[in-house]
Specification:
Length: 342
């Protein structure tokens, strides 16, 4: 019988924080080149295929290192996770573990129309899709490349048909690019149970665009939405994240606001990130304390030792978390969200 030990960190507010949520990047490559993440011409060095954690290695780490260390909730992300050829098999194997309490995925949706049913059948139930604009031209300007929007929209409709729930739509708001669409995007939550989440633009991935455009605080977006429809704060939706959830009165879905620029939620951080090449990262915003689990695994370090190292990292997490921040003055980072596993 496997005994699951729970490891907590204690935030600097003294609260106990259960660190049980792992975001797993399956691949650092992407079929989009979003302006805010991986802009055209960015000189990213991709992880070589032989350096990806294989499905077997990933499962070994989840079953024998992360679950015994207390992780029970997993999100597959990237880069673009649907580019990983064995993505359905990976979903099936993680979903089948009795200790898995939650399995979700973040995707740009471009390949979703053909894969939605297979992913659902493999046991995936929750999806977050990126949708930064309802205007095909603006969308293509943001994500790079042509004829993208309609395919993504088909992917969203396919996910809805197949029954993914909750279905969340992520919007990174960039001043002067898509902020004029905030009301139209918010309106998607009214007629169907879709959960639209507005994410404050961070200076990770494209520092020049950030310097040029800046970012809009969630409070300002909420005000615009409240002025149009009113907004209630008593909503909730299943998830593991730091979104503040609101609802337009009478809407079927909700509106989430992820305010990592205007708020610091380091004290309630419940997650770690595993990159496609096996780096375990305790904090999104700094590189302190990373462990290379792939190298350790391939060089035969005993799994019990790896589990102890992960547990040690959980106890160090409050010190590692990037807590000392002034809004608007976050630095720039050497790895993008696509490399870290956003
Ligand atoms: N390719 C998938 C997608 O786009 O949904 C998953 C990976 S992507 C890195 C995960 C999330 O990170 C997306 O919701 C994306 O919008 C967000 N993201 C990437 N760069 C960002 C930035 N500079 N600021 C805020 N969010 C960002
Ligand atoms: Fe690709 Fe997602 Fe980054 Fe866009 S946000 S470039 S879809 S990884």
């Amino acid at each position: 019988m496997l005994i699951v030990l729970r490891f907590f960190d204690v935030g600097h507010n003294g609260r106990m924080n259960l660190v049980d949520y792992l975001r797993i990047s399956l691949i650092d490559r992407c079929n989009f080149q979003c302006q805010y993440c991986m802009p055209e011409g960015s000189d990213l060095e991709y992880v070589k295929r032989q350096d990806w954690l294989t499905q077997t290695e990933l499962l070994t780490l989840i079953q024998l290192v992360f679950i015994p260390a207390g992780f029970t909730r997993f999100r597959l992300t990237g880069g673009e996770p649907l580019l990983r050829p064995d993505v359905v098999e990976i979903v099936r194997s993680i979903a089948a573990l009795p200790e898995t309490q939650d399995l979700s995925m973040t995707t740009n949706g471009f390949l979703l129309a053909d894969l939605a049913q297979a992913l659902y059948d493999a046991g995936l139930r929750r999806l977050n899709l990126s949708l930064d604009s309802l205007n095909p031209q603006t969308f293509e300007q943001i994500v790079g490349g042509r004829l993208r929007w309609h395919r993504v929209w088909e992917g969203i409709l396919a996910a809805h048909r197949v029954g993914f729930s909750p279905l969340k739509l992520n919007v990174v708001v960039i001043p002067g690019v898509n902020d004029h669409e905030v009301l139209d995007l918010a309106a998607l939550s009214i007629g169907q149970e879709w959960h639209v989440r507005f994410i404050e633009f961070m200076p990770i991935g494209n520092a020049d665009l950030f310097a040029d455009r800046g970012w809009i605080p969630s409070a300002e977006l909420r005000q615009r939405i409240a002025d149009r429809w009113g907004l209630s704060a008593e909503a909730s939706v299943v998830g593991n994240g730091p979104a503040d959830v609101f609802q337009i009165p009478g809407a079927k879905g909700t509106l989430g606001f992820i305010s990592q620029m205007s708020e610091c939620f380091c004290d309630r951080c419940n997650r770690m990130r595993l990159s496609a090449d096996g780096w375990l990262r305790p904090c999104l915003l700094n590189e302190v304390g990373q462990l290379n689990l792939r190298t350790a695994l391939r060089s035969g370090v005993p799994l019990l030792e790896l589990q102890q190292q992960v547990q040690q990292l959980i106890t160090l997490k409050p010190e590692i978390n990037y807590k000392q921040r002034d809004s608007g003055t976050l630095g720039t980072y050497s790895r993008t969200m696509s490399q870290i596993g956003g």
